[in-house]
Amino acid sequence: MGKTFWKDVVDDLRRLYETKEGYDTIIIAGEEPDIEEIYAHALILRTRSSYFRSALSAEWAERANNGYLVLKKPNINPLTIKIIMKFLYCGMVDLDGHENEVILELLVAADELLIQRLIDFVQEFLIKNSNKFLQQELVRMLHFIDHNDKFDEIREAYLDAICENPNLLFESDEFLTLEEDTLKLILKCDNLTMKENVIWKQLVRWGNAQRMMLENNMMDDDIKNVDINALGKILQELIKFVRFHQIDREEFMKEVWPFRSLLPETLIADILRCYLETGAIPLYNTFLVRWGNFKIDSGLIDKEIALLFTKWIDKKAIDNSKGATVSRIHNNHSDYAVGCDESHGPSFGDGPDLHVPNNGNIWKFKAKTYPKLGISGSLTISDYEVFQIVNVIEFPNQDDYEDKF
């Protein structure tokens, strides 16, 4: 018969944490006026954290005259250190009762002290409650993910949330207080679900607000009263991330043309060329199509499926005359996404695993390259479409565009 008494161990360690009996370490946390001495036991800290294992080692630790180990952490406030100490002693942490600022400080501190389990827990909490945090402290959270790029999971989750619901940010007054680098981070997102002309209007509004704050004037949205030169200096770096070629001609003339002096002449000429020439490919300011600008001419797939295809595509160069292709077949019972090459028509795998003989409507499947596709030996096709993937390339004279700024 055997039994593990985990609760007894945790209770005893919690009692030790609370009483501080036999402590040998003093952590001086925070700065005046919020500074406090936290008492702890070096053995427990060194056992639970690789950071403390080094910081409290004989080579690094500082000892006071009374023999106590002393560690100064002025960049971590006392409350945060106490939360971390309770976690190290008892394995306990409760974030529900703390202010948002404390939770963010805890994550940064846990990262500094190399406490990975606490890092993972706080990140999970922030992601799970992302809607609440964005509703309560939108700009603070966006600035946080911009300033702390090591927290990839949080950054991706919060950017995705903004990209899916951009009005939460762009139609709020807080948007005008957004830092330039943070706004740039959002403008780089391909999955931002806003039309480009709306993005441009909001960018001008943001730039005008920054200009007014610099000049200590009242906000004025009237284009006639905008100092174009001052606005140009403010928007200089951000303009590079606006996908002007994805703006409809009428919208461009209405929303962008009044500010054309802010754009390089080469870019303006290229945009006008693309409006006038059927099938013209942009030479400047080349980007993937932003989700908010995405249009699909298909009878079988909608925008969401087309965007899913773009996630699947490997953006490596392919040496053939037509480029990579993706097909979607609509059969009478289910839908299957397949690839094809330029010589065999719609097919999948080297077998080919999936193919249509004699240009008929009965498609055959035999596993060879792929062990299992979840498709029966044959299926009847009512229709199919083939989409060509066009790689967006950077032309050498793109430098002319960069030099303008």
Automatic annotation (TrEMBL):
Top-level lineage group = Eukaryota
UniProt-listed Gene3D superfamilies: 1.25.40.420, Potassium Channel Kv1.1, Chain A
A Pfam entry, by short name: BACK
Residue ranges of domain BTB in the record: 23-97
Q: Where is the signal peptide?
A: none
Protein name in the entry: Btb/poz domain-containing protein 19-like
Which species? Gigaspora margarita
Q: From which lineage does this chain's organism come?
A: Eukaryota, Fungi, Fungi incertae sedis, Mucoromycota, Glomeromycotina
